[in-house]
TrEMBL record:
This is Protein-glutamate O-methyltransferase CheR. One of its GO terms (molecular function) is S-adenosylmethionine-dependent methyltransferase activity. It comes from Candidatus Magnetobacterium bavaricum. Signal peptide: none annotated. Residues 8-260 form the CheR-type methyltransferase domain. The keyword NAD does not apply. Pfam families: CheR, CheR_N. GO terms for biological process: methylation. Keywords: Methyltransferase, Transferase.
């Protein structure tokens, strides 16, 4: 009898796995969204939650709703995009950005940032505040992307709950904030509206990490707490996308539970902060060569290669200027 119960449970689990695979295939064929290589455990939790909320008895019923009810699919799609997020989440990460990455971005004439999987925008505005305080925002363009239009609309609005602002203020202070956090939003009733000055250099747009292509020549890519929902093969594919989207010396920032070290693309990157999962693609853009030492926390090997590259470039510029002077004299 016990063996029979065990067999029935195993059959049910196997059938459920098959139904989930069919559901994901149906979404891909009908709408073009590819979740087939997402973490199955995470997907099953989201599916079970939606089935409970919609009073659906089984996954087969949900497949029918997905195929024939666009509003239902849009609702489920939005639920898949929602991740746990808050402003200045993991304050030590933003502190590391301020101390170890900002000094290397500062000399650039223009800074391009891609926040991939931006969800409802809390991380986007956090970075905008950091760049503002470091006097870099005026020469920065932030591209914030997500596959969910509903999440993007909320991010564009930049309206959050005032109840969350106490927690966000604490995060901001721990992240090295140098101003008063309340100056960055307008409190109105139970809503906090982010200041318009923070939105002016942000472009929100739809982009699917699974199916869409390269996203420009970026100096910084931030993709935190997104890849944990992908299986290893899909993570590897996305890392390849990031390699192709980063300029030489660009930075990649991941979540605390994510790493590029297990990827076949790991050799393209060096550690900037092992603790905060910040990496750079080979050499840095422009280190502070005048001081003769790396910025705080910057790997010395990366600094040495960067300064050597700059020294060689300056030498060639001197040679070119000498050649131009000789041509002018003749």
């Amino acid at each position: 009898m016990k063996d029979e119960v065990t067999d029935n449970l195993e059959d049910h689990s196997e059938n459920e796995d098959i139904e989930v695979r069919i559901l994901l295939e149906a979404i891909y064929l009908k709408y073009g969204y590819d979740f087939r290589n997402y973490s199955k455990a995470s997907l099953k939790r989201r599916i079970a939650q939606r089935m409970t909320l919609s009073s659906l008895d089984n996954v087969s019923d949900m497949i029918h709703k997905i195929l024939y009810d666009r509003a239902f699919f849009d609702m489920f799609l939005n639920e898949l995009s929602i991740k746990v997020t808050e402003m200045f989440r993991d304050p030590l990460f933003f502190l590391a950005m301020r101390k170890q990455v900002i000094p290397l971005l500062r000399p650039l004439p223009f800074i391009k940032v891609w926040i991939a999987g931006c969800s409802t925008g809390e991380e986007v505005y956090s970075l905008a505040i950091l760049l503002t305080e470091e006097k870099l925002y005026e020469k920065t363009r932030i591209y914030a992307t997500d596959f969910s239009e509903a999440a993007l609309n909320q991010a564009r609005d930049g309206i959050y709950k005032t109840n969350d602002m106490k927690k966000y203020t604490s995060n901001y202070q721990q992240a090295g904030g140098v101003e008063s956090f309340v100056d960055y939003f307008l409190a109105r009733y139970d809503s906090a509206i982010m200041d318009q000055s923070l939105r002016k250099n942000i472009t929100f747009s739809r982009h699917n990490l699974v199916t869409d292509g390269v996203f420009g020549e970026m100096n910084l890519i931030v993709c935190r707490n997104v890849l944990i929902y992908f299986n290893r093969d899909l993570q590897d594919s996305v890392f390849g996308l990031f390699v192709d989207s980063l300029c030489e010396g660009g930075f990649l920032a991941l979540g605390s539970k994510e790493t590029i070290r297990l990827s076949r693309h790991a050799s393209n990157f060096e550690d900037v902060s092992k603790e905060e999962k910040i990496y750079c693609k080979h050499s840095m853009p422009i280190p502070d060569v005048q001081s003769g030492k790396p910025a705080e926390g910057l790997p010395e090997g990366v600094f040495n290669r960067s300064t050597a590259l700059i020294s060689e470039t300056m030498k060639r510029l001197d040679e070119l200027q000498g050649l131009l002077r000789s041509v002018t004299r003749t």
